[in-house]
Structures are given as structure tokens and as C-alpha cells.
Protein 1
Amino acid sequence: MKKPSRLSPATRRSMLGNALNATVLIAACALPLAASAQKGSKNQETAAAWPTKPVRILVGFPGGSTPDMAARTLAEPLSRVLGQPVIIENKPGASGNIAADQVAKATDDHTLGVVINGNLTSAKLLYAKLPYDPAKDFTPISLIATAPLVLVAPPDLPSGTAFFDAARNAGDKWNYGSVGNGSVGHLGMELLKTKAGDLAAVHIPYQGNPQVVTALLGGQIQMALIPPGIALPQIKAGKLKAIGLTSGRSPLAPEIPPLADANVRNFNLEVWTALIGPANLSKAAKARLNQEVSKIIRDNDTRQKLFNQGWQAVGTSPDGLLSRIRSETAIMGGIIAMRGIKIE
């Protein structure tokens, strides 16, 4: 029998080196895959690590107001996906700035806020001693929804251009209401006063739109800009009259004409509501909220509920909300400068 040939020492060393090189190559190729899998696992763990207790959403307006209704519509599905209670806390006052300031100063990583335009756009331009900085003290999460405003009046007043004739003739004997100094209803009316021929109606601030409606029904004020969700039930019941919308035709109120039909030109204004957190909101919270909130707002059931309340659902990324804040800050700044509005 022929004996198997023996490998020379040099050949054995060469084969061992090739085997080692192949092992190193395989391990090197596996490293990026392992790192990628580990990174994905860590991202999932980070997003899933929050919340660890109930989440509070502060709303700077009373129960039944349009920001409150939007917050409550968001809270139920958000609670389901987060696996923790989401509690709405109403902190009305100062056009929502009291609640916004509490959100800015929150340190528990489980406090969020639902705010309106003014808290993020005009507040810093109006208040010399605003206790928070809209540009620095918040984490933007999502623009929830938008709506035009409806100019409403008591039913015994005239409609269309005749309404504005009566308002001009009344001078400062007429009053208008809003949800507070610096609110969109306040700044929008000041802009409307210039667009409709120098109206002189006097501003009276209230805690929320339900109180504005009560004042309209009681004759303390003669007009106000309020969201469709608040206005339409009163209009349909014949308790208030719709003068016009602060935008073009809207699916939220298709039967109400735009103010342009009453010869109020170049006037376009919306109210909106957004979800924010404090600037120190953790990465885990931001990741989870960015993952869930826009999906909830784009859900058909959520959109329909918001529509029924007088909102058009949006649901943006944080960058989308930032873009809206910047563009509207410029618009509101123009109104404030034009009318010389300052709040002490």
C-alpha cells in the first residue's frame, strides 16, 4: 500500500495562514451586520423605554374649548399605544401661556402640552416678561390640526357688508371678545379692523371660547372670531349669526361664505393646535412620540373625530411644526407692529 505523502512544514504553515485569514475575513464581514442589528435593537429599546408612568398633557384653556377637544381626541389612542394613562389637565389663563410655561419648566419627562398658535408665535413679541422662550424651551412634536375662524355676531345684527357698515357707525360702542390678549382671535380682529375700514370695536379678553360665546349671547360683545367647532352649533341653533370665514371656502363649514364676499380683501387666517414637550424631553420620549403621534393623527377615525369638532387633521413631523411656527411668527409680527400691540 502506498503511504500518504507528508506535507512539508512550509506547506502546513501556508495552509494554516490561509485558514486564519479566511476566519478574520468572515468575522470582519459579520461586524457591520452585527453592529447594525445591535443599533436597531438599541433604537427599539430606547423608543420602548418610555413612558414609565402616566403622561400628562397640559392644556391652557378650559374644558370644552377647541384645544381641549383636540387634546382629548389624541389622548385616548396615545394611551393605547404607549401602554400608560394619558391625562388631560386644564390650566386656563393668559391665553394659554400659563400652561405653556409649566410645560417649559417640566422636569419629569412625562409632561407634554397642547398649545395654540399664539403660545409659539406671537407671545414673545407681545410680552416683555414672558417667562418662557418659545424658540428655546420646547421640543416640537407635531402640528395636530388647523381651522379657519368664523366671524360671528348676535342674530339681530345685519349680515355681509351691512354688518361692517353698522360696526363702523358704532365706533367704540361695540366690543369684540377673544380667548385672551395675544391670541389669534385678538390679533386676527385687530387685523380685521384695518382690513374692514378702521373699525373701532374694543377688545374684551376671556378665559376661553365658551366664555366668549356666553358674552355674545348675553349682549356684552357684538362680534368675535371663533373656531367652527364652537361656532357651528350656535349658528345652527339660531343663537349666533355667521358673518364669514377668515379663509376661502372650507369643508369644515361649507355653508359659510368667506369674508371676501363681504368686501374684506387680503385677509387669511387660521387657528391651529400643536403637541409639544419641554426642551429637556428625553431622546426615548422624542423617539416614541415621533413614531406614534403622526400615525395616530393620520388615522381615519382620529381625523373624523377632529373634523366633527371643527378641525382639519394635519399630523406633521417636528420639522413640519417648526416650519409652521417660523412662517406664522413673521405674519403675527407684522400684525403686532402694524397695530402697535404690547402686553405688560
Note: The CA atoms of residues 146 and 310 lie 9 Å apart.
Protein 2
Amino acid sequence: MRTAIFKQEWREAWSNKRLIWIPVALMLLASMQPITLYFLPDILASGGNFPDGTIIEIPIPTPEEVLISVSEQLRQIGLLIVLLSAMHTFSHERTNGTLAWLKSLQIPTSRIVISKWAHYALLTVGGILLAQTAAAYYTVILFDAFDSVDFIVSTALLVCHFIVQLSIFFFIAALLESGVVAVVLTLGLHFVMSLLIGWVDLDWMPWMLGPLSSEVLLTEVDLVWPLLTGIIVVFLSLYVASKRLRFMSHSA
């Protein structure tokens, strides 16, 4: 009974192919970046309508620069994919009465929230690992080798970044009736905090985990405070979501 909701999430993910399309979408997003950068001169030459004899010289990016561009793509478009996949986690279940039914069974709210969060967290981690593996493969094949330890640390930070953002989304989605609004607010908060970090010294904030996943490929970085505040944000988000989860829709 303790893992029934968690198992149901995986069964539902398989039936609606979420278990397939999320990792595939992240892998395609990550692998296309090194391929596009490699063939960029040819793409420009074939579609640029340049005069005959024009020579296009584009500096060949380093493997680290390629992986940084992959990280940026995943942090932007990849995060949108993950949040959209989880958009109806609570809102749809309020409307069809599933959450109210679970409450009638006297299932702890914390179990409901954590089971659903754990499903999406594991699915996201798996997708990011596959995406990073695909990006690393094409980077080595098309460009050159890179420091494997730095890449592993970068991938771990990227995973932490996604876990923090997913937790914030679950916190907002538990309080609000609309999953769409929860996605917009999560992305909006992410955008605002990213801007503030660029203007103010907020290197200790968990929103630094994303940029650090790129910086660690080029230089040494301080990871302690962003990781610590990230853990705090995750626990607080899940705690408040468990305490304040709305079980019914006003339209129900």
C-alpha cells in the first residue's frame, strides 16, 4: 500500500508513453547541439546565399564549449519539457476526483506528494543522464575528448538543478488549481532569479546550480552553498506541498 501510488505513476507513465517520450526528447535535444555546431559552416554555406568564392571561417568550438551549449539547451528547453509533462499532476486529479478519493482512503498527504514527486524526479534524472551520455558521445566523435571528472560533476549539478526546479513546481502546483499557472510561475521565478544572480551577488542560491553546471567545465567553482540551499529548497517545497495540498477543484 505504501508504494501503490508510486507504482501507479509508473504504470500511467508507460500507458501514455511519458516513460518513452521524455527521455527521447531530452536525448534528441542534447545530441542535436554538437551535431548542429559541427555542421554549422556547411549549413550556412548551403543556405546563406553568399557570393561564389565566399569562405566561411567559424572557429571550431572546444569540447567544453559544446557541452556548455548542451547544458544551456537542457536548462531552458529541457526544463520546459519536464515541467509540461508534469503540468496536470494535481490539477487533473482534482478535477476528476482522484485526490479526493485518495484522501477518503486516509492516505497521508505526504505519501501522495512524495510518490508523485519521486516518479518525476527519477524519470527526469534518467532522461538527463541519457541526454548527457548522447551529448558526450557526439562531442567525442565530432570534436575531441574532454575531462571526464568535470563532465560527471557538470551532469550531477544539472540533475540537481532539475530536481530543485521540479520541487518548486510541485510546491506551487499543490497550492494552485491550474497546472498551467504553476508551470508559468516556476519558469518565471527561474527567469527572475537568473537575472538577479547576474546583477547581485547571489552565488549561494540554488538557482546557481544551472550556471555552475557549465562553469565547472572550465574552472573550479564553489559548490557547497548552492547545493546546501538547493537541499533546503527541495525539503521545504515538499513539506509545504504535503501540508497545503488542495484536494478538490472549485469547479468540482
Note: Residues 25-32+62-244 form one domain.
Protein 3
Amino acid sequence: MKEKIYVHVADDHKILIEGIIAVINTDKDIEIEGYSLTGKEVIDWSKEKTADILILDINMPIFDGIDVLKFFQSNKTDQKVIILSSYDDVNLVKQMLNLGAKGFLSKNSAGEHIVKAIKAVAAGEQYFSDDIQNNLFKLYTGQKVAEGERPESTIAHSLTERELEVLKLIAKENSTSEISGILNISTNTVETYRKSLLKKTKVKNAVGLAMYAVKNNII
């Protein structure tokens, strides 16, 4: 029987952890070992436990992801790490790799890449989500962003005030009926806003919307 891959998830947003766990649980070869909400919790965890893969957010309270990687490096902790970040700057990617990370996923595309990334890194490979690979390609080839391609921040600015209100409530795990009551609009109107948000942000579900909201500092 093939051995399972055990994964620990570290992020300061519980809803993102739950979303990542939900995706991971769809694959029978991967199992969640546990999760942490701060960098300190990750460091404390690493002193007593281990996992095949650590999914590590960069921006966390007390100690951030960079501090965690530096701790691993200075203590010669043999832990395979995949970075999860709201930022996709290539210089940041290179810094994380120099500190020992084996993969890098941006939060807006983590849902569709997380399982592949875990399996690739567990097998000894590096893994980057498509947007990270594209940025690295542009850096080394000198190519510009294609005409008509819009950065995420531009999309965020195109959302209406009401769409932003609905997005914030979705990201805080409110149901359609709860949003309807809070904003005093019909459930059909809420669903219309939800469909518009999915189309504009190019994500597939509420978890993707929550990740988008976090990445763009909407919540």
C-alpha cells in the first residue's frame, strides 16, 4: 500500500486553513497532520513533531514565515516547506528558495495547485503555481505583461461598493440567507452578486473568494 503524505498547514486565517484542508481531503493519498495560526505555533510544533510537508503562510503574527524558515535553517530542521503567500514578487520567491522552501503558491491560485504541489515536493521536486512561473518567466525573458492582462489589484478596484460588502461577508463565512438579512436584500440578489464576484475574480467558489479577499486586503 502506498504511504500517505502528512501535511501541516500554517496560516493566520482560519477560513483559508479550512479551505486548504477541504481541498486536501479530496485526495486519499494526503492526510492533514494539524495546523498552526502563528509562526510561534509552527516553531513550537516543529520542536516536537514533523510532517512530510509544511504549507507555510509568509504573513503571520508573532513570527512570520521568513522567521520560521530562518529558524529551520539555523537549527538544521529537515522540513519540506511550500510557501503560501498573498505576494508573488519574484525576489520574494528567490528569498524563500534561498531559505530552503521547495515550493511557492500564491493564495489566489492555491486551491487548484495545492494537491499537485504537495505530491511534487514530497517526491523531491520544486513546485510553483502558474502565476509564479509566469512572473519568473517574465523576469528572465524580459517580456512584459500581455496587453489586456490585468493585475489582481486592478480587478479589486473594479468591484462595486455593494460587491465589496458581499465579498467581505462571504469571506467571513456568512451564508446567503445571513448576508440577505445583514444587507436587507433578497437571497436572489445575494446570489446575483456572488455570481458577479466569481466572474470578476475568476475563482470557483466561496473559498476562492475568501482567499481573494485576503490577498487584496479586503478583510
Note: The chain has two domains: 5-141, 152-215.
Protein 4
Amino acid sequence: MILRQYIGRRRNYQLYWSIALCMAFIATLAYMVMLLTGPTSGPGVYFFRLYYALGGTIMPSWLGLGSIALVSKPRFTRVCVGFLMLLSVISAIFVLDATVDMHRLAHIAGTPGTGTLLPGPWLVMTIVLNTLGVVAVAGVALLSGWKLLRKQASMGGNRTSTILWANVFIFIGAILNAAAGTLARVLGLDNIFWLIMALGWIILFLGVILASRRPRT
């Protein structure tokens, strides 16, 4: 849906959100294929790495890029795109090269896979990219809220109130997705991980839809 909107309207933030949503979709498919082929099998390990690289490491930062593109000038956005592409490639290489704890991987079904990769450079990049994504989404929400208080009606051609609420939804959804594993462990029910993720994505997608609405003439 968002990709179709981008094709029709050519708004860059819709493209970056489409990329992030596709990453999440591919990561979820990789997780399912990993379980079907056996987590500790050769293909299973590969699909686990793919799931973790796209879903756990790279995707959140592209959500943040969409928020930045929503309110920033094209030149600044292009700089961010180039920088993020470089970090994404480096992160993917680190995840693909990381050492896997095969015992944890064997019991991954229904869990986020936290602790399955042994600590290494991938962990630093994951923290950096996730932090950048959350800061970008939260920063745009705060900026739009501040401008709304100052009675600035629009930002980047969109209504300030629309940007504010869109990014609030995206922020809450992103936080739920990031915290899904922790919440599951705290509650002692690993099998609710995907339920929390589903809730997070529904809320996040509502924000994306809200931001993509055409302003009334």
C-alpha cells in the first residue's frame, strides 16, 4: 500500500518506509523458513542471520529515515540516505560473520533470538542503528509538537498536527517492536513475543498511513 502511494506520489518518506516495511516482511519470512528447515541446519542458520540482520539491526533506522525525510530538505535527506546505506552494509556483514550459539538457536522457536549471536562488532552496530531510528522518530514527533504549540500550521507541506500524531504512533509501534523480547522475558512467556510484535506493527502502520494521507484542499 505504501509502495503504491510512493509510485503515485513520489514522496521520498514513503519510499523509505516501504523499504523498512519490506525488510520487516522479509525478516518475518526468514524466521518462518528457519523454523521449517530446522534452526540449526545450514539453511536455518543462514535464515536466522537474515532475520536478525534485517529485522533486528537495520530496519528500525530506515523507519527513522522516513521520519526525517518527512520534514527535512532533500539535500539533507540524501546525505542521511548515503550514510545509512553505508552503515546498513557494514552491519549486515557483521551479522553474517557473527558467531552463533547453536544451543540457543535450537530453542529459538517463538522467541526473538536474543543472545543467540555472541557479542561482537554486530552488537555495536545494532545499538547504533536502533538508537538512530528511535531518536529520529522521537525527534520528529517532538519537533512537530513544538511547532504545533507555536501555532505553525504546516511542516514540509503537511499539517503539523498530522505529522505529530503520525510520529507518535510510529514511535509507540517502534518501541513495542524493540521491547517485544524484553517484555516477553519479563512476563515469563516467550510465546507472546510475536503477539507484541503484531501489536507494535499495527500501531506503527497506523502512523505511516496517517502521515501518508493527502491534505485536504
Note: The longest strand covers residues 154-155.
